[in-house]
Amino acid sequence: MPLGAAAKLRGPGFQPGPFPSRAQAWLPPGLRVGKPPCSRFPDSPWLLWSPSLPQATPADMFAKAFRVKSNTAIKGSDRRKLRADVTAVFPTLGTDQVSELVPGKEELNIVKLYAHRGDAVTVYVSGGNPILFELEKNLYPTVYTLWSYPDLLPTFTTWPLVLEKLVGGADLMLPGLVVPPAGLPQVQKGDLCAIALVGNRAPVAIGVAAMSTAEMLTSGLKGRGFSVLHTYQDHLWRSGDKSSPPSIAPLALDPPDLSEEKGSVQADSTVQGDMRRLTLEGEEQEEGEVQQRCGEKSLSEATEDPSVGGLNPDPTDSKTLQEQMDELLQRCFLRALKYRVKKADLPLLTSTLLGSHMFSCCPEGRQLDIKKSSYKKLSKFLQHMQQEQIIQVQELSKGVESVVAVDWKHPRITSFVIPEPSPTSQTIQEGSREQPYHPPDIKSLYCVPASMTLLFQESGHKKGSILEGSEVRTIVINYAKKNDLVDADNKNLVKLDPILCDCILEKGEQHTVMKLPWDSLLNRCLEKLQPAYQVTFPGQEPIVKKGKICPIDISLAQRASNKKVTVVRNLEAYGLDPCSVATILQQRCQASTTVTPAPGTKDILQVQIQGNQIHHLGRLLLEEYRLPRKHIQGLEKAPKPGKKK
């Protein structure tokens, strides 16, 4: 039952009270009534069994249909109160983020409903999606909200097999947890947590921790772990647009500080060893499939892992990851000033300096991420460079900084040289370097339909034959000459015989049109033929398909938080990997990207980039990938110069 359109996405959080009436209801896969509740995950030695495990009862209050009491637009005072509540509940959110979550003017609805068990629930709906719900004066996020803010809550991971049980209204038992190499998130009993699946950080459920992390460890990961409140695919989710979870790559977290955990984990060292066994081959296989599909690790993984990101080519280097990122940042900055930025480019927007110059100066095999450096922000780094008198930065317009002067005679610029890569790292890079992308050769073809077989059968073609445009013209011209249809008085006209009349004329024209000019005759023939096309990728056999090739579709969409996102579809038809394109755009636009199945399709993926990034996307497709403009639609939606995106 839809909750109605509303205004904005909202984030929640809090420590709800216990739910004593909730039974431990997570049933392992394969559990049947009348059989002992035990099962085993594939390739895992852990037996999911509890001697006191009761039969499943609906833990998720939205596991069954609810009844809507009222649906009204939010008042200004309630909107301000909601913004204050979100700020209090989520202190990690900045002012701008809270403003995005709870906007000042966009439509936002308050829906009051009764859950199937009689609980009175208030739901906040924005853009047609439920974004928050309130129960007993506590705010909770929905999965729609957490997909936009996946790090809003501490996230625990479980197996995909478990999702079906959670959707059915079961709680999550501890044997179903997957323990990452960095360990479980640190939570206390009663903390609100998100639950995600192996290989994807997008949460699929929201629950309350039934015990603290330390208690989970000391219990040997046995017992009930989380009381589930809301899941993907439950009735609250169905009241929205029913979109699927986006694909968000798991974070490569640093291992926990052993000195901090010594007090809590050392008490039972065998538990920690058992926790590692939970990941086993199931997690490795699933993560392998995700990485194989995307072709490469995400930006966050590349920057966290020295061996992948190339930040530490020398294993004996004692520098920390932050120190290496500082060094890489300064190297890209100096290289950009010395070899790319010209005096005529000044004043230069600081964002342009980073996106168009510094990123392109990053050595191959490395990823530049300012957030991983000690500076954290570009403005702070440029202030440091200004203090060294390398550049001068001014705020030429409100809130927009530009580089207005560069001292190209500064010793740090004059002495900078591009370091030669070590033979080892160079060999690794050459071995792992992907082949450069070459656009396919796309040729328009024509298919003979049943209604035109008489015209083409004399030339040896039948229904379904594929022809090029030049072949069609030759066949039609030869047919006219062979049947003496060229007008004797005017060679530019062709007399229409019964076959031509049936093939190219409309019903109302067959008794009125007796002759046609050559151009009109040929154009009508091409219009009556069915479209087809041939795609030839370098080094591969041509692929012929009927119909018209779908262009790369670029569109702007407005999500529940009223933020604009750029959506790109049909990249696969042109030999482009959506995951690779998403990774490149994430780096160049400095914006979050996700890859999800395109709505209404099974095998087509779409890339979603935060903000209006059509300008960057157009430059990538036209200039670097050299795709013809006629095969790209939506480029005209790029932000106009001098206007807000």
TrEMBL record:
HTH OST-type domain residues: 325-407
Region of interest called Disordered, as start-end residue ranges on this chain: 238-319
SUPFAM superfamilies listed in its UniProt record: eIF1-like, PUA domain-like, SWIB/MDM2 domain
Classification via CDD domains: eIF2D_C, eIF2D_N, PUA_eIF2d-like
Signal sequence, renumbered to the chain: none
Record's keyword terms, sorted: Acetylation, Cytoplasm, Initiation factor, Phosphoprotein, Protein biosynthesis
Name of this protein: Eukaryotic translation initiation factor 2D
UniProt source species: Eschrichtius robustus
Source organism phylogeny: Eukaryota, Metazoa, Chordata, Craniata, Vertebrata
